[in-house]
Design goal:
Layout: H1 3-8, E1 12-14, E2 20-22, H2 27-33, H3 39-57, H4 62-77, H5 84-115
Antiparallel strand pairs: 1-2
Helix pairs in contact: 3-4, 4-5
């Protein structure tokens, strides 16, 4: 079982005839709407949702979340399997942005404190 399978399996279900559906969606609607989707497309849609959630969660640091969302959406439209390296790079981007912001604010605050009489 690949890492992608392990990450997405809690969100997916499969019928006896092999149709993949979201477990958190209404099963009848999911089967009706998504009966033509491949497993890779469904996984990509889960990663699109992850991008939306991370974009909403990290308000000011939404760049990496938006990057994840854009990449996942472009991969979904061409029905390719999503490469987790892009997701990893987006997460590293978020961490890097947090570190940069902390360093900049730390430098600004320390300079302001030094100027105080």
């Amino acid at each position: 079982m690949s890492l992608l399978d392990k990450l997405t399996s809690p969100f997916l279900g499969k019928t006896a005839d092999g149709v993949v559906y979201y477990r958190f969606a209404n099963r009848a609607q999911a089967l009706q709407v998504k009966s033509q989707r491949t497993l890779a497309e469904v996984r990509n849609l889960i990663l699109v949702m992850y991008g939306i959630v991370s974009t909403m969660t990290f308000g000011g640091l939404a760049f990496a979340g938006a990057l994840t969302l854009i990449i996942a959406m472009s991969e979904t439209t061409v029905a390719l399997s999503f490469d987790l390296r892009w997701l990893f790079l987006a997460e590293l981007g978020q961490i890097l942005l947090i570190v940069i912001v902390i360093c900049v604010f730390d430098g600004v605050i320390s300079r302001l404190l030094r100027r105080q009489p």
